[in-house]
Design brief:
By secondary structure, this protein is an alpha/beta fold. The protein contains 11 helices and 8 strands. Strands 1, 2, 3, 4, 5, 6, 7 and 8 form an 8-stranded mixed β-sheet that branches. It is globular and about 50 Å long.
Amino acid sequence: MSRRRTVRRGLVLGAGGVLGSAWMIGALRAVETETGRDLAASDLVVGTSAGSVVASLLGLGISVEAMANSERGIHESGDPVLDYRDLGASLPPRPKMRLGSPRLLTASALHPRQATPMVTLAALLPQGRGKISAVGDLVLAGMERAGADPGHWPDQPPLRIVAMNFDTGHRVLFGEPDAPWMSLPDAVMASCAIPGWYAPIEANGQRFVDGGTRSPTSVDLLVDAGLDEVVVVAPACSLTTDRPRGAVALVERQVRRAATRRLLREVALLEGAGTRVTVICPGPEDLTVMGGNLMDLTRRAEVFETSLRTTTELLRSTVHPRPRHRTTPPSRRPQPAADLQVAAETGATPAGAAADGLVRSKRGDDPPVGLGLAG
């Protein structure tokens, strides 16, 4: 009698700034509540920028419920408090008056086909003065709660943190055996260090910055991970959008569209390798609440509550009823990739697609492009 093979599942948490973190926690809470799935039981968790914070806390045994309670100001004894006020104002401090990375700018000029607009911009921006230590302190508090050694990386589930080498532009997957050694708090700070805003994080003579500069999720790095199913939560992307009037929000939506195109191509690569992928992104109502500045602390509570509600409504409208004890991820019928592209670029909702962004793509013939969103 043959034994049924265990399904290997992955969770990818993307970039999105302070508000992306709040939105992500609301979405994750809705997924767990509506599907009965324990996301911390994933076989692999990958985090980028804001997603690296949430991913690291999950890997340290902090539940999504505890993070959701923190967003509401409810804190159990010993649980880390997701309070980002120590990061400073919602605008960057005055930067240093010199290029962020001359070496990266030179590499982009020598290899223009490998360069991307966001990476080139990161190299050109002045060096940031902001301190990201509050993020490291949050992760360290999670490690202390878990009784983890400072040199410990969570292995249940295995955790990977994405950052970008600020001199070469290459992505680094901290936690991988061949990656440079960096403590978990430092790796998360590196993944969150927005170029031009925060100072890079240094390790072994190398500088690292926000992984979202290269890709909003880096889901393509999972092509060889041997996963059967992957849930991608992407606060920096949207398949349907709102129509903001402010100049800052209009620019943010343009960057968001580029990030979404990158995400869809990466998803196609992963599905081309045989992995089933579910993507959850903010929809128009979420975006209206987020505004144009994803670092605006004053909107956190409203963004969290909106995400919790809209994602719950989305899941109830798209997920077929299942017994509560089953741990299958949210799913819906596949949408043609062409329709997904239209949704990403125009804000139109493909026929049969949910208005708030839970979709699937199925085509793998588009090459990846180098556009992402720092944050």
